[in-house]
Amino acid sequence: MSESLPQGAKPFDFTGNAKEWFGIWIVNLLLSIVTIGIYSAWAKVRTKKYFYNHTYVEGRNFDYHATGKQILIGRLIVIGAVIVFQIITAVLPILGLLLLIGLLFIFPWLIVRSMIFNARMSSFSNVRFGFVGTVGQAFLTFLVYPILTALTLYTTFPILDRAVKRFSINNHKLGQARFNMEVGLGPFYKAFLVAIAWIIVVGLVGVVVTGFSFMDFAMAMENPDAAPGEAAKAIGLFYLLFFIAFLPAVFIYQALIRNAVYNNTTLEGGHAFASNVTAPQLLWLAVTNMIVVVFTLFLMLPWAQVRMARYLAAHTGFIPGGSMDDFVTQQQEAGGAFGDAYTDLEGIDVGLPI
């Protein structure tokens, strides 16, 4: 059993249900197929709007305000740019290489624009979110840190992960109130080392118990027809060990990090957040969801999505530092007409899933 949320924490509440969501999901899927993916832009909006509208805290819910047209325009721009890039690369390889280098510097700008768009298109109790991150911060976070992480053989992954979360959270605001995450490297490295320890211990025990050999696996992958039975056994054991060792490690890391981040994030006005998810519960939900979805040929995917949303909402808390009515009123007055005008300026989604 997981620990209770801190005293005074108001749990989030997801009120959606699988039957209702299935009706929306199946229409989204069929129309996206019939329109060769064009309707998927509207499907994305309907999906976000459903899950936002059905997520409540303190009796107030979230909302999503983008339109399918905005999403579609952004996607068409990205697709057009990719096509032009491919043509230039095929005709003038040197120019294509220069453009590729240029894209490395455009990428941080795209990330910032995408995060601004997604923030401005989201609201809580009619108060719009905002994002104030800079291109320079994005360049450091999404280009410099990943390169350094790769050069250190990913032993500094916790540093990268914390940088990404700080960039996202600390540059977001609700109305004019800023979010702030203050978490040291300790919790990130603790989660990282616990996950690695699980992989090592379970992997070693698994190798001893099953007799798995990496040499046999390598030979089976290189020449599976030489001994089909042995190849199938080696490959089967590899995937068994992978799911037993690596999959739980992912959820161990996610659970520990989620709790550390939420429990150390505040919102101006004396408000705070809390989280008490556990790795076993997350793993159980993920595995059972996957089994049910696969064996129902994905028809139970809406049920799995609703089930996970309910769990995460129930294990996430908001700790108000005062009256929510006063806070919301203050932020609505601070936003005013400027918020609506600014939304019009941020009229398209550049297509990144940020």
TrEMBL record:
Domain of life (superkingdom): Bacteria
Species: Litoreibacter ascidiaceicola
Chloroplast found in the keyword field: no
InterPro entries given in the database record: DUF898
Protein name: Uncharacterized membrane protein YjgN, DUF898 family
Keywords (A to Z) from UniProt: Membrane, Transmembrane, Transmembrane helix
Transmembrane segments: 22-42, 72-91, 97-117, 129-148, 191-215, 236-257, 282-301
Entries under Pfam families matching the protein: DUF898
